[in-house]
Amino acid sequence: MGLSSDKIAESMNINVKTVLKWINRYKNENTIECKLKSGRKKKIDDDIDNIIADCVLNCSSNMTLDIIKNKLKKNKINISKSSIRNRLMDPKIAKIINAKNNECE
Fold it and tell me: Which pick of 38, 50, 63, 67 has the fewest CB atoms within 10 Å?
């Protein structure tokens, strides 16, 4: 019938409980994809992403998290530097920056 849960877990270097969870999810839902979770609401919306993208475009090589945080504060937006860093790592910001760059050309 195939590999055992133990063998699958070993070959994928994951816990056997994870394998069993995936197998049960597949049996019950016909998929192993994660469900959307409600989680905590995000404080950062598209407007804030646009401000962050503008900072990246306008601050050139001198851009720091502090500069972005201060610009956001001037717009009465208070988010942490770690949240800003997380947004900068998000591919969505790169798409916004590319789109804005293309508008300027």
Answer: 38
| 8 A C-beta contact, residue 26 and residue 32 | yes
Alpha helix ranges (H) inside 1-105:
5-12, 16-29, 46-58, 65-74, 81-89, 91-104
CB 68 within 8 A of CB 85: no
Structural contact between residues 65 and 81, judged by C-beta atoms closer than 8 angstroms: yes
pLDDT, tens only, 29-70: 888 777 766 677 777 788 888 888 888 888 766 778 888 898
Contacts 24+ apart (CB under 8 A), 70-73: 72/48
What is the distance between the alpha carbons of residues 88 and 52, in angstroms, rounded to a whole number? 8
